[in-house]
Specification:
The chain has one domain. It is 90% helix and 0% strand.
């Protein structure tokens, strides 16, 4: 139906139906317009305007092809660059995981070493403390022994002084002198 209407509109709009009188007369405006149009088209052909238009369209098509080729190249470069960055990102991520794992291992080793050093330091301090205690005990025993000897000698001296008479003292001195003489010779 639409085709029928379009065909009828084209036939009715033709110049033959619009003008009055014979068609091939200069008084017919349609004929004059047709001649002017044909002269215009002839001038365009004579000045090689269709070739210029064709060349301009070819140049435009070539420019579009060049732009599309450049766009393809840029897209391929972008894909390559993206793949490169993704690979670098994976590498950096793997490296960061390795660094974290190494840091954890080093921290664990440092903690174990610190624990071992602390235990050894505590052991040394305990040994030093025990040595100091032993030294203090020995010094105290020696002081007690010396004090006991001093007290014993003083008590023995008092006892001997009370029990000793002049004759006993003289005999004791003579015996001590004889004993020293025997040891010296």
């Amino acid at each position: 139906m639409n085709r029928l209407i379009a065909t009828a509109a084209i036939l009715m709009a033709s110049p033959a139906f619009a003008a009055s009188g014979p068609f091939f007369s200069l008084r017919n405006s349609n004929f004059v317009v047709l001649i002017a149009f044909l002269v215009f088209v002839g001038i365009l052909v004579w000045k090689k305007v269709p070739a210029l238009l064709g060349r301009a369209l070819d140049d435009r098509a070539q420019a579009i092809r060049n732009t599309l080729d450049e766009a393809r190249l840029l897209r391929e470069e972008a894909k390559t660059l993206l793949a490169s960055y993704e690979a670098k990102q994976k590498e950096v991520q793997a490296q960061s995981l390795r660094i974290i794992a190494t840091a954890k291992e080093e921290a664990m080793a440092a903690a174990a070493q610190a624990k071992q050093d602390l235990q050894s330091s505590i052991g040394r301090r305990l040994a030093t403390a025990e040595e100091q205690i032993e030294s203090v005990v020995k010094a105290a025993e020696l002081a007690v022994r010396n004090q006991a000897i001093t007290v014993s000698i003083a008590v023995a001296g008092e006892v001997l002084a009370r029990q000793m008479t002049a004759d006993g003292a003289k005999a004791s001195i003579d015996a001590a002198i004889d004993q020293v003489a025997a040891r010296l010779h």
